[in-house]
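Two proteins follow. First one:
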Amino acid sequence: MSEQDTDQGKRQFLVAATTVAGGVAAGAVAVPFAASMLPSERSKAAGAPVEVDVSMLAPGERVTVEWRGKPVWIVRRTKEMLETIKANEGNVADPLSKKPMQPAYAANETRAIKDEYLVVVGICTHLGCSPVGKFAKQAEAFDPNWQGGFYCPCHGSLFDLAGRVYKNRPAPDNLVVPPHKYLSDTRILIGEDTKGA
């Protein structure tokens, strides 16, 4: 083998090795760059439906989950709590839920698919504060005849146990009922509407 053939072989090897190394380096740079253009897990979760198991929720209790960066309350109402909804019709501004603060399938007296479970976004419709649950039927500083519901201590808005706003309060609308559906008797999917609704 001549010296010229050896040099040519070395040159071809070095060109091939450099090409392979350059390709690997370009791939190593391109993969994270391309991956950074995809939505993050957090941003996917922010808009994704949230599944909630309500089997552990005792009557009269509330659980809070996050959906699209907002607190969503699920309240398992007792028979007594449901009775106060009818009794409060004269106190609330939109007793028949005519304003579009809920999907059509929740535009009813209890603002729910199943009367037992209230599903609402836990943000006051006045200035975006978070009301507190005051479920006990007892005299309160803000209402001596309180029947139970939600009280916003920031500006005094009141909501009944169906999330309907009381008359003559700062909040203009009922609490928002998010789209949701039941996957089973005890599993709720928040963020997707009931089929055919």
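Second one, unrelated to the first:
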Amino acid sequence: MRLLVTTPTAVVENVDDLAHLRAEDATGAFGILPGHADLVTVLPVSVVTWSGDGREGFVLIRGGVLRVSGGDLIEIAARGAWREDQLEELGPSALEDLQRADETEDVTRTAETRLHLAAMRQIERVLRAGRDGPGTPPRLDRRADETAS
């Protein structure tokens, strides 16, 4: 089997001759061996372990999608991923990167929300000015005696 772990900006892991893989999704932990049926599942923040090429590896996944195809290819597309040969080495550096990424996303989300609200307010001002400005036809929901005054 072959394992390919990618993020939007990098190929984190590319292993041939994979013997087995262990991951977990919302239903719990599961394993994949050569010849596994086709599968697509969503991965939460979790550690994926594997052995192959005479070594073990660990990849911390920051949420993503795992796909098994043809019984010999496992692809993981993740928002973020960190790889180490030793599980103990994975924690500290990945945790710092995750915290930094979460803070950046929070700032970005706040800025996008503010921009969206400002655009909506501006649209409302333009629509209001066009409705109440001179030369606009009388509103149909007013009575005739109100429009005469």
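SUMMARY FIELD: Strands lie at 2-6, 11-15, 18-25, 28-32, 39-52, 55-69, 73-78, 81-84. The helical segments are 87-132, 144-148.
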